[in-house]
Amino acid sequence: MGRAFEFRKGRKMKRWSAMAKAFTRIGKDIVMAVKEGGPNPEANSRLRAVIQNAKSANMPKENVERAIKKATDKDTANYKEVLFEGYAPHGIALLIETATDNNNRTVANIRSYFNKCNGTMGTQGSVEFMFDHTCNFRIPADGIDVEEMELEFIDFGAEEIFADEEDGILIYAPFESFGAIQKELEIRNIEILSSGFERIPQITKELSEAEVADVEKLLEKIEEDEDVQNVYHTMQE
Predict the structure, then answer these.
(1) To 5 degrees, how large is the angle CA 41–CA 47–CA 49?
(2) Angle made by CA atoms 133, 125, 122, in degrees to the nearest 5
(3) What mean pLDDT is predicted for residues 171-185?
(4) pLDDT range class, residue 22, cuts 50, 70, 90
(5) 66: CB partners within 8 A, 6+ apart
(6) Structure pTM?
(7) What is the rounded CA–CA span in Å between residue 196 and residue 42?
(8) C-beta separation of 233 from 203 below 8 A
(9) Residue 25 in contact with residue 196, Cβ under 8 Å?
(10) Interval 98-123 mean pLDDT
(11) Which of 10, 96, 153, 161 has its CA at 20 to 30 Å from residue 120's CA atom?
(12) pLDDT-based confidence at residue 16 (cuts at 50, 70, 90)
């Protein structure tokens, strides 16, 4: 198993999977997808992917349809994806993905969290290079030979494919390979249970229990912010 497997195993034990704001994040993803490519999932691959993720998160179909309808309203604000970078205490690098309709508010909030928790907000590019930007797909394991699939999907950019007892088969690839893999899975009529993007740290740092608590204090403040979609760090899980 490679880094993607270890990274996913560590994150599965963290708070994100159970966060109550999951529907809010998906709702913003729907708005951005519709504004970018229209409300028809058949003609909008990004929207198809978000709808798959909504199903995976058990988001009611009515909520999804309501979010799509709302996104087509000209008065609905669009969200801009903004990446923030910085350091938590003890040299832990942080990457923060946000979706905001008010960048000034988001910048002020993120900066205040760093200041209050002895962190340092960085400039663009200061820590992003420490993470690999990847895409991922989750598909059913039924009737699929993982080794054979890995050989076939190398041509579409896949770097790591592995089976997970709970989640089926997981495919990891560079960020830019998302479209090619999504298209090939759809051509083969392989159901995509969920898909998305992650930033996997190239190197992680082990901390003491007290140091972990310092970092967690900052992470909790950031994750509670309504504009934050995802937080990634270099702390060893």
Answers:
(1) 110
(2) 120
(3) 96
(4) confident
(5) none
(6) 0.87
(7) 18
(8) no
(9) no
(10) 97
(11) 10
(12) very low
- Residues present in the chain in total: 237
Element (H, E) at 94: strand 92-100
CA atoms of 223 and 236, how far apart (whole Å):
18
Tokens read off for 197: 């993007």
Question: What does the angle CA 105 – CA 233 – CA 160 come to, to the nearest 5 degrees?
Answer: 120
Which whole-number Å values give the CA distances from 172 to 2, 26, 110, in the listed order?
10, 21, 30
| pLDDT, the chain, mean | 91
pLDDT for res 166:
80
Closest by CA to 96, choosing from 201, 227, 228, is 228
Strands 228-233 and 92-100: antiparallel
Contact 54, 64 (CB under 8 A): yes
Torsion angle of alpha carbons 30, 33, 37, 39, nearest 10°? 0
SS3 100: strand
Q: How far apart are CA 197 and CA 225, in angstroms?
A: 20
At 99, list the tokens.
């979706």
Tokens of 79: 């969200």
List, as one string, the DSSP characters of 115-134.
HHTT-EE--TTSSGGGEEEE
Say whether pLDDT at 132 is over 70: yes
pLDDT, position 20: 56
